[in-house]
């Protein structure tokens, strides 16, 4: 930036130098033509001088242009890097906060916000230079001329500063509406939503929503703009009034003193020049003020501290191998904006190498329980312990690397098959043998062999030649990824929801093998799968209502029994359900 500013000052000198050397050259050429002698040394030097100035001027201009571009990239890089470093490391709970997303969107304008004040300051520097020369001229005539010129600018500056602040406040207020508009735009542009938008004929519905939100923001902005323009006209009238007073005073001076017409015109021009420059400085100052607000907002984003979000600062190592197991002690949890406990007083213990199934109706808190175990969501009350150590005392990296989870909404990475599996343990990216082994166990290998590029086939539609997979095939890839990571605890949240019955059967047959010597937790709505577990936890409305083996729970004849028999009845020709459903056909 310093180099760029220096070069703009240097560039400003070149026109004077060019003018001067052209004048000298013309004089020298005239003298040379009229002279009888061949004295050409001075002429040659002047030509060399002109050549050098042209080259140097071009060099300096182009270096400055390059430096400016480099500055844009550097600032853009730093800004984006800071944002990405933040979004990829803040506690996951921040993503549940709408304010976080609003703030993120406000600052995502990029590096231009940072470069703009730099340009404004350079402009101000130039304006200040010309102001100095006008001011010097006016002070020589009378100091009051400069004072009145300064006073005349104050109203305009005040209006501009006020509206800069109003514009910033409006921007903050409009942010949620802008995000909403963005969402409707996304729905209308996104590949995955394209089918359903057409199926339900939602295009004009979302388009109208987008128009509504867009127009709402645009009309508010324009209303403010109109008010500002009106206020500026008023303030300019006030300034002109000052200047008119000065003009009258000058006319009176011209009449009563010996001021020449030339002096009078020069003073009027100096006053006009001062007025113009001061107005420009005032506009630039207001702009700088507005830019300051945005930059402050940018830095505030990185200082957000949500008191309700506990940061995991544990240092202790993860117990390896786990010897006593995992314990939930009276754990209660509530989402940050929630008004009820999603988990309440949950207590249970999992022994080393035990296989646990968690079942329960939709929304009963199964996934939330897993998110708490991973240390992503701190309990409101109670503790989660592994071998007696509170998970918040364990180093977070170690905790996460010892727990593998496949969530229902796992990521479908637009990477190659090999990379999709290997991201499960990025350090072992090149462990070919293991990649192939887990691909075989998860059932991925059989369909990968059909692709010409095999494991190097890009998946998804982002890359050229990318292959898209079916829901079940993606799920197999996710399963392979989880297996690739050799952790002590494996958690599968609805692992087989998209799998066909044969694949599901295979996965469950392999499950004991896959999770051998590990603690395994799986959440499933397929009641039959829960029979594989050593113990079953039944959840209802955030509480554990039953716990035991399949046989024990069946004997209890309560929640589990009802859920199990209800599903089993679908397959029994004698059951009431089957008779009713078959009855629909008749
Ligand atoms: N990020 C969140 N913010 C606020 N509430 C949430 C959030 N995630 C889940 N919930 C609420 O917490 C409750 C439990 O959700 P959870 O996902 O744990 O249920 P689940 O038992 O896994 O359900 P399913 O069987 O449908 O997957 C639900 O009522 C849901 O509305």
TrEMBL record:
The chain crosses the membrane at residues 40-59, 134-159. The keyword Transferase does not apply. One of its GO terms (cellular component) is plasma membrane. It holds the Pfam family ABC_tran. InterPro entries: AAA+_ATPase, ABC1_TM_dom, ABC1_TM_sf, ABC_transporter-like_ATP-bd, ABC_transporter-like_CS, P-loop_NTPase, Type_1_exporter. Residues 2-290 form the ABC transmembrane type-1 domain. It is found in: Cell membrane. The keyword Nucleotide-binding applies. It is a multi-pass membrane protein. It comes from the Bacteria. Keywords: ATP-binding, Cell membrane, Membrane, Nucleotide-binding, Transmembrane, Transmembrane helix, Transport. One of its GO terms (molecular function) is ATP binding. Residues 326-566 form the ABC transporter domain. PANTHER family: ATP-BINDING CASSETTE SUB-FAMILY B (PTHR24221), HAEMOLYSIN SECRETION ATP-BINDING PROTEIN (PTHR24221:SF646). This is ABC transporter ATP-binding protein. It comes from Brevibacillus aydinogluensis.
């Amino acid at each position: 930036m310093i180099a760029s500013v220096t070069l703009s000052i240097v560039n400003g000198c070149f026109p004077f130098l060019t003018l001067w050397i052209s004048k000298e050259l013309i004089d020298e050429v005239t003298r040379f033509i009229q002279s009888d002698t061949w004295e050409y040394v001075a002429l040659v030097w002047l030509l060399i001088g002109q050549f050098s100035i042209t080259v140097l001027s071009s060099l300096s201009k182009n270096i400055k242009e390059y430096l400016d571009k480099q500055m844009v990239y550097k600032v853009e890089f730093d800004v984006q890097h800071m944002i990405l470093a933040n979004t990829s490391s803040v506690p996951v709970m921040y993503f549940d906060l709408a304010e976080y997303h609003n703030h993120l969107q406000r600052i995502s304008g990029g590096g231009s916000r940072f470069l703009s004040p730099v340009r404004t300051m350079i402009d101000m520097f130039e304006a200040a230079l010309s102001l100095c020369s006008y001011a010097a001229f006016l002070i020589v005539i009378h100091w009051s001329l400069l004072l009145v010129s300064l006073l005349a600018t104050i109203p305009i500056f005040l209006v501009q500063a006020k509206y800069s602040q109003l514009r910033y406040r409006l921007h903050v207020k409009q942010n949620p509406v802008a995000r909403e508009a963005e969402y409707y735009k996304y729905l209308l542009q996104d590949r995955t939503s394209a089918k359903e938008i057409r199926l339900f004929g939602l295009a004009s519905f979302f388009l109208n929503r987008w128009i509504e939100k867009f127009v709402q923001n645009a009309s508010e902005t324009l209303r403010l703009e109109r008010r500002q323009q009106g206020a500026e006209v008023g303030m300019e009238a006030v300034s002109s009034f000052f200047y008119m007073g000065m003009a009258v005073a000058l006319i009176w001076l011209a009449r009563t003193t010996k001021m020449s017409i030339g002096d009078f015109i020069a003073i009027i021009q100096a006053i006009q020049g001062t007025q113009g420059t001061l107005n420009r400085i005032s506009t630039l100052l207001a702009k700088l003020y507005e830019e300051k607000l945005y930059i402050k907002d940018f830095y505030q984003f990185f200082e957000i501290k949500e008191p309700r979000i506990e940061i995991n600062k544990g240092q202790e190592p993860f117990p390896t191998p786990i010897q006593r197991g995992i314990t939930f002690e009276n754990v209660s949890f509530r989402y940050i904006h929630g008004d009820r406990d999603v988990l309440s007083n949950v207590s249970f213990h999992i022994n080393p190498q035990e296989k646990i199934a968690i079942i329960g109706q939709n929304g009963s808190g199964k996934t939330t329980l897993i998110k708490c175990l991973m240390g992503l969501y701190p309990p409101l009350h109670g503790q989660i312990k592994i071998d007696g150590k509170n998970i918040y005392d364990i180093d977070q990296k170690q905790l996460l690397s010892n727990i593998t989870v496949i969530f229902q909404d796992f990521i479908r990475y637009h990477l190659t098959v090999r990379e999709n599996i290997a991201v499960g343990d990025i350090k072992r990216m090149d462990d070919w043998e293991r990649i192939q082994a887990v691909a075989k166990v998860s059932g991925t290998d059989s369909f990968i062999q059909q692709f010409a590029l095999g494991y190097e086939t890009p998946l998804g539609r982002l890359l050229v030649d990318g292959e898209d997979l079916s829901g079940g095939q993606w799920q197999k890839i996710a399963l392979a990824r989880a297996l690739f990571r050799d952790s002590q605890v494996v958690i599968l949240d609805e692992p087989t929801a998209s799998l066909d019955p044969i694949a599901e059967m295979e996965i469950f047959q392999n499950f004991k093998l896959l999770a051998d010597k590990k603690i395994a937790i799986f959440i499933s709505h397929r009641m039959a799968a829960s029979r594989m577990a050593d113990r079953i936890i039944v959840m209802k409305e955030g509480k554990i209502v039953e716990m035991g083996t399949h046989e024990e729970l069946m004997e209890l004849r309560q929640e589990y029994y009802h859920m199990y028999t209800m599903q089993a009845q679908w397959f029994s020709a004698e059951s009431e359900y089957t008779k009713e459903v078959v009855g629909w056909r008749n």
